[in-house]
Amino acid sequence: MSPLSDNLDLLTPEFAMAGLAFLVFALDLFLPEGRKNLLAFVSMAGLAVLIVLSLVMLWDEDKSLYDGLLAVDSFSLFFKVFFMGLGIAIILTSMDFVENRLKHQGEFYGLLLFSILGMNVMAQSRELLTAYIALELLSFSLYVMVSYTKNSDKTNESALKYILVGAVSSAILLYGVSMVYSTLGVTKFDEIAEGLAIVSDVSPALWVGVGLILVGMMFKVSAVPFHMWAPDVYEGAPYPVTAYLAIGSKAAAFALILRLASEGFVPATERWEQWQVVFAVLAAATMLLGNLVALGQKNLKRLLAYSSVGHVGFILAGVTALSANSDLASNGVMFYLVGYSVTNLVVFAALISFFNMTGREMMSDLGGLADHQPFLAACLGMGLFSLAGLPIFVGFTMKFYLFTAVADQGYLWLAGLAIFSSLIGLYYYLNVIRYIYIEPALTGENGEDLLEEYPALTKRPSFTLITVLGTGSAAMIWLGVYPKPLIDAIESASRAIVF
Amino acid sequence: MEWAWLIPVFSFASALLIVVFGRSLPSKGAFLSILAIALGFAGFWVVLISWMGADTTTSGCFTSENTHLLTCDYERTWFNAGAVGDVGSVSINWGILIDPLTIAVLGLVTFVALMVQIYSLAYMKGDTRFGWYFAIHSLFAAAMLTLVLADNFLLLYVAWELVGICSYLLIGFWHERSSAREAAKKAFIVTRIGDVGLLVGILLIWREVGTFSMLDAFEAVRTGAMSEGVTTVAALLLFLGAMGKSAQMPFHVWLPDAMEGPTPVSALIHAATMVIAGVYLVARAFPLFEAYDADALMVVSVVGLVTAFVAATIALVATDLKRILAYSTISHLGLMMLSLGAFGVTAAVFHMMAHGFSKALLFLGAGSVLHSTEFQETGEMGGLRKVMPITAILFSIGALSLGGIPILAGFWSKDEILIAVNEHHNVAFIVLTLFTAMLSALYMGRAMFLVFFGPLKEQNEHAHESPLPMTLPMLLLGILALGFGLISFNWPGNYGGFGTFIYFLHPHEFHFEIWLGAVSIVLAVASFIAAYLFYVKRSISLDTVRSNFAGILNVVENKYYFDEVYQWTIDRVVLVLSRLIAFFDRAIVNDIIVNGPADVTRKFGIALRLHVTGHVYSYILAMAIGSVGLALFVWWRVA
């Protein structure tokens, strides 16, 4: 067993990230109002440097830190780079919004960096308490970010709900951890697997503990029946934070679930085969309910909240199909996470751009968008097509890959249900596209023209948003047509946790 | 050569850029399109030169068992369906195949497309959808180039369909006119019928061989892994696709109507893109056709011969200038197919190129005439050589070339076809082929004399020569129509003539059958003289000829009633049937089976929405119930 601080240098990116966050907080004190935009650029530049640093330093690394609490392997490297890239994209997406609609800009970016740090540690942790702390770092940053527009009643309500429900779920998670520890005496994932494999007698405390840990995780990804906070919080949070909730925090939670399941549950083959059906039922309920309820939504943020619940159902189906002798399912889940994030980023960037111009967020407000904002409309349309899972976009490829993996593990009914749910999803995504392209422009409450009311609608979206939209759309098509390079990377990442 | 895939990519990129940014670019992005295809043309030279410098040690290159020529294949995995190496997993590749056939057609496509695009700059000037026109033009060229470069049937099929959709868009370019809409639909639907055959053929090959790769398929045929019956059926199915695209009887009806598009589009479709795809396909898949007893080739020959002959007779009586040219294209496509059927792959490709240059020239010439006089009917023209001399000279070169007058390109290629037919088929074939060649000279002479010779009509006195961007491409094409035949000789040095360049199993050293050549020269010259006597001197009365053959003439002038028969079938059989099905679809499928569950689902979703109450305590209650439920569920699974 190696000394605890032997290879501490492998954590350099994490230390640097914390330093970057503090740097942003400190700079904020000295920058005059109106120059705060610089903070965004500092954060992005820092993240870009960190991406390069991580790639150079940790390439092909496969080490364990702190006696096995943290793993520095290709899996965590993949997610680290992914999260930090996502961070850059989120900053680009939120710059306009933050500048025009939020106070305390420096703190916004600083908190964002802290939450990314939390996500990075989540992808690396292979021990329950470490994972819990990382999760809380992410959650606390998010609690603050969700309540950022603190003068709005709606925001306050949703932030309060988020904290309350989040606190309950944290309590449940911790309780679960303590029960597992009390029965097995260990908290490391691989030791849990060993414990599960050899325990022969059924101790209710152990199963309840595992169940409670699952509940805590399911809350984070908003799986049914722990999803109810999602629509309210999505609706009340500032738009970029909604995007971040839908993309970043979900991806991080799934990175953790993927490692926990692959290292902690799957190796105990017999137990895992008994539990798979639990995940399957959760997945089925989540995908069905999310997609069904989305049918009746009129607010775009709520719609996307339920749509994300539906997608979580699909990803959970992938988690169900994890197996000790095939990496197809974990590849599928990771591919889905990347594809879903890219697609959702495009959709949110387009909607944020529209919101910046008008301050509106109902579906019917999008009427006639294609006439005065063709580029925005096209990107939004492509993003929605991709979410619906239509080819040539990544939405098709990722669903195809994931559902194939699910069917391959013998869960044909689940794959069938997933396809059926996608079909329901198609309806409401196309409904939004109908507004964009077919429905006439909405007139205001007093019959005035939307264009007169919002002259910004005739102007171009800002450069930062165009960057996100352009690269995001290109990536969507690229990954939809030629996903092989990404899948190669994913395969090497999942080899770190599966075999 | 590995980088040859860039050739279509240039044009794809330009199409995309024009569509997205066209409105804000100078000249609406037309220059991008021309630049892209010019790069493609440059790419053709690079490929040609590096192919000539390559040998079997070059990466990806080997000597093909079928052509005995250096062939280079570069492929990459596109995606794998299923785990790699698993039984039943499919690996889908995209790749390029470079051999002399590819290179020859690459040259033809890039050059003609370049000429046509430059020409279009002037021809389409002022059109409201100028940018869109060039975007589609680029896409069209890109699709055709992909088709030519593809090394597997799947990619070929994708490009094939893309060519189809582009032709649809271009033929219907002036979609304000109902005739253009109809023509576009007709072209699309008729060729689609053939495409079904192509798709089934490709899937059949895939079922037998397990990959879409052409080389694997040829290998399977050569080693006998693919049985005789399957090979013949697959070849015939591929040929069905080729018949649709290359407008062979009875699918030829779309091509004459395709002239509803802008005239440069016709030049492109007739010379370089759409219609030669079919001929290319048969030439490319030739190992399938000639395998075993080459039964499939007999079908190809007969279809080709009938098409060539019938279309030539219609061309003789058509009065619309573009229509004459269209039927002439069909006839010459028939000749190419006939040549393929007679093992004359080299001759067919040679004729494809000679015809391509000449026909592009003729269509651009016709466009020049229409641009200036605004008439399409030959009856309204005459004597135009006095007002537009350059067009007149160049058009005549094209006409003489296609008519088969010696030293022009068309003469040499026609001669090659005659030799191939003479060697492999019986007397009836050669007689009919010669007769068709004679008709070809006759209608070409007729078109040339009616339009440019004789007295100038008063209504056309204001007509003028076209501007330089239109005449320059014509001039370049004219030079090729004049001199292209020279590449068929074996020049001193290493070059063994075009015959050894394509060289498909049966090497065709350039040779010249004295009697065949003599007969064809005599027939061609005599036909042009006859045309001169008929249409310029009018020393032989047309009316007496007409009255003598009134019965036949009536049938021919009505284009053998093909359109009428099709129309009747569609009206009386297809539409009646489809109305029945439509009723079933509306009442039962739509209202009950589709809308029924959809309505239920929607209402269910709207009702379920109410479970999110907005109260935190109910959320936490749900979580508590969920947690207990989950824990119990886990326990139940284990206990």
Keywords:
heterodimer; A: 499 residues; mainly alpha; two-stranded antiparallel ribbon; 20 helices; 2 strands; 1% strand; globular; B: 639 residues; 70% helix; 4% strand
Detailed description of the structure:
- The complex is a heterodimer of chains A (499) and B (639).
- Chain A is mostly helical and 499 residues long.
- Chain A has helices at 12-30, 37-58, 74-101, 105-124, 128-146, 153-184, 189-198, 204-220, 229-236, 239-265, 269-294, 300-320, 328-358, 369-372, 374-388, 394-408, 412-437, 450-453, 463-481, 484-498, and strands at residues 63-65, 70-72.
- Chain A has a domain at 266-499.
- Chain A is built from 20 helices and two strands.
- A two-stranded antiparallel sheet of chain A has the order 1-2.
- Chain B contains 25 helices and three strands.
- The N and C termini of chain B lie far apart (66 Å).
- Chain B has a three-stranded antiparallel beta sheet with strand order 1-2-3.
- The longest helix of chain B is centred in the last third of the chain and has 47 residues, at 562-608.
- The mean pLDDT of chain B is 81.
- The chains are: A mainly alpha (499), B mainly alpha (639).
- At the A-B interface, helix 6, helix 8, helix 9 and helix 11 of A face strand 2, helix 24 and helix 25 of B.
